[in-house]
Amino acid sequence: MSRLYWHFAALDESGNPVMRDGTPIEIGKRYEIDGEIEMCARGYHGSSIAINAIEYAPGPWVSRRPLEDVIDRDDKSVGRAFLQKPGIDATEILREFARWCALQVIDLWDAPNVVRRYLDTGDESIMAAASDAASDAASDTARAAALYAASDAASDAVWDAASDAVWAAARAAARAAARATALYAARATALYAARATAWYAARAAERDAERAAAWDAERDAQNVKLESMLIAALQ
To answer: How big is the CA angle at 180 (ends 100 and 177), to the nearest 5 degrees?
Structure first.
């Protein structure tokens, strides 16, 4: 039996899932390519854990692919073929997940009350106020790092500008992550909020080996939470 890999896809204007080239995704169809497969270049991709898949997500539609003839690396895999399983629009789940992640470190920064209320409830009637409050409270470092999640093209410049300040201490990084995630959650950009969370957890471990175990544990906890939410919705 093929192993299942998490995969996110975009939705077209009608709310139907599509591949990166705009080709409609057909449930129950077997997809297969001939010739060599190559990571990030040719083949069908997925990640063994959901939080890694988010970092490559072009949109909020999620399914689990049973990839065949697989090449694995740490954060993603590529296969020659798979049978497309049913999926779901996970927008609301990602919003809830982003709020949950921000709440795990909410005590590490002076979060405005309206931000706390929004993260607790997801109440859309206070979403705009929470967004404004989170934006006002966020430091320049948090804003710069959050920008990374919204623009891959800016990654190098953002990294150079923010790295020293963000990773000066684990608690400082957690504060920045909480602000960034709260800001994105409040703005209802669910995918970017979740991607910001995943990015922080991965980059922190890379920056300081002494913190790697703690951040890996946090990332594992985030993944357990995210997968439990997605699996429940997929069933």
So the answer is: 70
Evaluated on CA atoms 47, 52, 54, 55, the torsion sign reads: negative
User: Residue 6: which residues within 8 A CB-CB, separation 6 or more?
Assistant: 46, 47, 48, 49, 50, 52, 53, 62, 64, 65, 227, 230
Each residue of 190-231: pLDDT tens digit?
A: 565 566 666 555 555 555 555 556 667 777 888 899 899 999
- 34 Cβ contact partners less than 8 Å away, ≥ 6 residues apart: none
pTM: 0.74
The Cβ-side half-sphere exposure at 169, using a 13 Å CA radius, reads 4
Question: With contact defined as beta carbons under 8 Å apart, do 6 and 49 qualify?
Answer: yes
Rounded Cα distance between 182 and 233, Å, is: 23
Tokens, residue 63: 């399914």
